[in-house]
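Why this split exists: single-chain examples teach little about how molecules sit against one another. For that reason, every record in the complexes split bundles all components of an assembly together and asks for one structure covering all of them. Below is a record exactly as it appears in the raw files.
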Amino acid sequence: MHGFLTLLKKELVRFWKVSFQTVAAPVLMALMYQLIFSHVMSRHADIYPGVSYTAFLIPGLVMMSMAQNAFANGSSSLIQSKITGNIVFILLPPLGPLEFFAAYLLAAVVRGLVVGLGVIVVTSGFGLPMPAHPLWVALFAVLGCGVLGTLGVIAGIWAEKFDQLAAFQNFLIMPLTFLSGVFYSINSLPDFWRTVSHLNPVFYMIDGFRFGFFGQADINPAISAGVVGTSFLLLAGLALRLIAKGYKLRH
Amino acid sequence: MSSALSIQHVSKRFGDFTALDDVGFDVAEGEFFALLGPNGAGKTTLISAMAGLSRPSSGTIRVMGHDVVNDFRAARMKLGVVPQELVFDPFLSVRETLRFQSGYFGIAKNDDWIDEMLVKLGLDDKADSNMRALSGGMKRRVMVAQALVHRPPVIVLDEPTAGVDVELRQSLWAFVRELNGAGHTIVLTTHYLEEAETLCSRIAMLKKGRLIALESKDRLLSHSAAREVSLKLGGPLPEELSALKVGQEDNRVILRLETIAGLEHVLATLRTNSVEVRELSVIETDLESVFVKLMNGGSL
């Protein structure tokens, strides 16, 4: 247990020591999105009755920022350790696969939540109401960070070079997070794209997270929680299996 | 005495390439053991398998009786490894590095031992320096301390003195000798054969993944050419001694004797034939000549 807590602490220290890059920068980027989109779309019809577009946008931006940063944390830490070789200091001690995975995952979730909180703080002047269902907000925040944090661990283990990781990030994570209803309701999409969006787990994270704030969503939040929870369990199972087998870690 | 390290029928294959081919030996508790071989012989692959950094294709490895795969937690608690590559975490200071490493091994409070190691390794004035600010030799010392945070009974050093200055080499060996004196088992790989010769009591040699020698240092040395003598003679070598001749250097002949006692026969024959001995020297063998001989396919 102490080994796990030490690795968790090391991972938290790692991103906190460079918090300008790992926390402040994504918060600033989300604020830019908020300023630009709320200006451009200010005359857009309200998506939910009684919810302005600027307020509608915030939960999506928060979840997108949390997801991208949860992914970035585990993946960049692992690839850096692998490329510099200092991962050996984590592989030599008696840390089991679960401790290894849980430490990287929890650090990723914490970074995601810190960034998410930062985005909420800087966009608080744009009319986001107090959450209608705080427990749904908390559940989707943690699960969403968990899914992307796990994907980050998997990507960090799989990638051998920075450009492989960048490919994972740009060709999988970016489309998943952008095409998930951050900026719109998927009900406004043509049938084909609506169907495609339903295959994207990030869509359910954002929709459920939004439900927590507004009490209304495109999908029943229980269904969304089921989809996101199942995605997490499947990915966590895969990550644990890779770590236990030593895939690309222990030749 | 029980085995600190037991390696049995260990093979490691990467596709068609066989990095280790049925390697097996034991290292007793408290031994100072050397693992020698040229680059690519499989030394680091074997150490990686001991440390759980790679898994053998077949065979078993036990550290203090604990299987490194099935009982990896206990095995890794008993083993400290100084890897060959110079690696460090650029986010941390020396003390943070050692505290985190202690924590990975489940040790919450380790500052007394950390302070002691810092003094012994000459790092006490660098404790709060960032790892990036240290010289290569200093980083190497930190790696040694990292391997020792959990006071493992078995310590493996994979070429710890490669590229390290003389002063550090000497202080490092003094420290490692002290650890050995305190009962720690030491396994060392090195390119500096004189280090193995000075420090180690038993030696294994690997070549192309195979174990080609496993002997006490003294036996390994005594097997070899300790019985070669170089003679400067006042006349030609008598016919009856020509079978012993293995070489000629300038005006000296080199004779190979089965045992050093054979020298008496050589001198008697020379006296009988009235050949004056102007100079005589016994060619001392060292580990390097044994090593070169073995690596070139010779036998002892």
